[in-house]
Amino acid sequence: MTDSLPSVAFLGAGSMGGAILRGLVASGLDVDGGVFATNRSAQKAAELAALPGVTSIALEDEPDGNARAASEARIVLVGVKPAMVPDLLREIGSALRDDAIVVSLAAGVTLDTFQSILGSETAVLRSMPNTPARIGKGVTGLARGAAASDEDVRLVRRLFETVGTVIEVPEERIDALSAISGSGPAYVFLLVEELTRAALAQGFAEADARAMAEGTFIGATALLDATGEDPAELRRQVTSPKGTTERAIAVLQDARLSELFRTATDAAIARAKELAAGA
Q1: Which residue, 132, 197, 219, 226, has most beta carbons within 10 Å?
Q2: Annotated binding residue 15
Q3: What is the mean pLDDT of each run of 10 residues along the chain (279 residues)?
Q4: Residue 16 marked as a ligand binder
Q5: Which pathway (predicted)?
Q6: β strands within 12-137, DSSP E
Q7: In this structure, what CATH number is given to the domain that contains residue 87?
Q8: pTM exceeding 0.85
């Protein structure tokens, strides 16, 4: 495992970029050459400036700050909104080091878009993290571009391992991964919302309803993590024959829950392809 990283720049250290930056700092992993971060406002930049080893740049004070940060870093993470990516790449292209590794955090922006602007010889990877990265429990998908070496992938993988699990996939699988792990936290939160509503409908006070629903999901996933058992086996352990849980599970299965999830993830994948096409 890589015990240190070369210099890293987060161009657009917003919600996701900022989460990964904080995870990197919290991990204590040595970063040779330091960490650089850019934000449009001085207020947001100030929030990151307090982190040890971070040079935080406010673009409203330093308009060419993205180019400066990119020139200082071996690993350059592009965390701006997808529509802003092409302009940012044109802005930093001439400032990149010869050995730069450019990593996309932007959903729906293809490797071809990066290579067409930066050149086919630039090492580029496309990443798809999810929001639990904020607490070091993320799942990140990584797809390498043609010019990215095994060493490039190893360094970027180590960076994302500071905020959770990393799965390497070919780029054509990134949209499918996004539909599962990228969007997945929203599915879980929706289930928590609905279980809370079910508790309210049974007459529980809101505080108690939330405590039951949220605590149940937190406890169940912690049990899954702690035991390493198959979720189907853990479900069977709760489901006594001819008991109350079995009756409830039957209702969910009769509602074709598995088909519903497949349809939902297919819809997410279709929308990702529309975004990539500029729709």
Answers
A1: 132
A2: yes
A3: 85 92 92 94 90 94 96 97 94 96 93 96 96 93 97 97 96 94 96 98 98 98 97 96 96 94 95 79
A4: yes
A5: Amino-acid biosynthesis; L-proline biosynthesis; L-proline from L-glutamate 5-semialdehyde: step 1/1
A6: 30-39, 54-58, 75-78, 101-104, 123-128
A7: 3.40.50.720
A8: yes
